[in-house]
Amino acid sequence: MNFTEGIEKAIIDKDLPIITFYDFFVLGYHLFHKKTLNGEPLKRLPRDWDQTRAKNALRRLEARKALVMDSDFRSGVWRITQSTRAGSAEEVACIADPFAYVSHLSAMQRYGLTDRSPQALHLTTPKRPLWNVLRDGRLHKDLPSLEQIDRPGFKDTIRRRPIVVHASSHPWTPSPVSGEETRIASIGQTFADMLAEPHLCGGMRHVLDVWENEADHWVPEIIAAIDQLDSKIAKVRAGYILSEVMDIDDPALHNWEQCAQRGGSRKLDPDAEYAPEFSERWMISINV
Question: How many angstroms separate the CA atoms of 162 and 122, rounded?
Fold first, then answer.
């Protein structure tokens, strides 16, 4: 088996719908240094493995029709023609961007928390400076010699679904989805996002409906996630809903009370007009 055939077989054995240049480079790097695949020696190895040789190997696999450039991305992503699965928009996006995850209304839909069916796929990814730090850490782990490899750029749609990407300075550590490469905000994190960014989760009226109908099943997870938020207003909103709407008490709520501000103009719904109805404990206008 020659080296190009070995790379092709290693890619097919993984049975992923797509491969990025980064993942191709790492796979080729390890195959080059191991010089065997499943115990079989590889022939016609390149003299070294660098980005130029990786691109040459990619061109050979494109000529063999083993890989086809994925038109849903600006560059750096290929469809694997012999994969047994095409991959959902969620999974393909999470392979292309190793730090992205399904979030907001799309996560709510995935958990069955909403009866809405958003056409757009909501993804969260770290803002560029943090993304670069995470990339450098991954490069240092995967490759002894660092090489600058950029992330593939999303187009407006992936697998015919509109994509809405939210860049965050404080992204969650997401959870893996069993049986696929998709990552998703945990259910507690999803409830926390509803209060931090309700406009991305169907609006505050919808968020309140979801909390009243579903939150009591996930109170420990929700409290743990809210505790991690930097947003004081989200903690105030959570404290109000849990204590005064759902009649739930927890020691964490007493800590969140310190986030309340007397004399302010905080609102439960950030997009609605200020209302005179007011929570004395949480010092927030109940404008929903």
Answer: 9
* Among 155, 222, 137, 151, residue whose Cα is nearest residue 185: 222
Residues 138-195 have pLDDT tens digits of: 888 888 665 666 777 899 999 999 999 999 999 999 999 999 999 999 999 999 999 9
190 is a domain residue? no
Could you tell me if residue 54 is inside a domain?
yes
Query: Whole-prediction pTM value?
Result: 0.94
Q: Distance between CA 161 and CA 98 in Å, rounded?
A: 19
Domain shared by 138 and 208, yes or no: no
Q: Which two tokens stand for residue 57?
A: 């190997």
180 and 96 together in one domain:
yes
CA atoms of 12 and 203, how far apart (whole Å): 43
148 contact partners, CB below 8 Å, separation of at least 6: none
